[in-house]
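Milestone M4 deliverable, item 7.
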Amino acid sequence: MSSTTSAAHADRAAGAGPRKLRLPGIVLGVGLGGFVDGILLHQLLQWHHMLTSTNVDRIGVKYYPANTVTGLEMNTVWDGIFHAVCWVAVLTGLAILYARLTHHRRRVWTSAALWGWILVGWGLFNLVEGIVDHHILGIHHVYAGDQQVWWDLGFLLLGAVLVAVGWMIQRRAVPYDREGDAPGRAAQQA
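Output delivered:
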């Protein structure tokens, strides 16, 4: 194979990287962002659970306050369903990533493009979850109380920042070279 053909092949392989990372990165980001939300806000800080604001929701779900045994049991079930969906999203993202890139995985996992797309997915999770659950359905809020609208808006702002930062990172990322790990490549370039 001539060096011109080899270089053209390497350019095509490198250019294909970021596009191949978009979908798995976003799906991984949605799942990982959901886990951060559920673990940090639901479990560790206990600011809310999936159904803690249904006494003022817009869809008529029975109220399950977290300060009663029955309420906490139902919220725990729905938090578990939420975490199961996050787990499926992470497994799906990993499966898509593996299916697209089965060689030189080390370069992929250290790729700024992948991590940029993961941040975009996390931000999209925050935006969709915040708009749907906090504002449209009203089934819970980031931190319920008199100032809950500001906490909810802050959550949306964080989502927008994550999308913007992730987008900038993946746009500036150097496409990974799938052939860069090939034995003898350095010798060919010398």
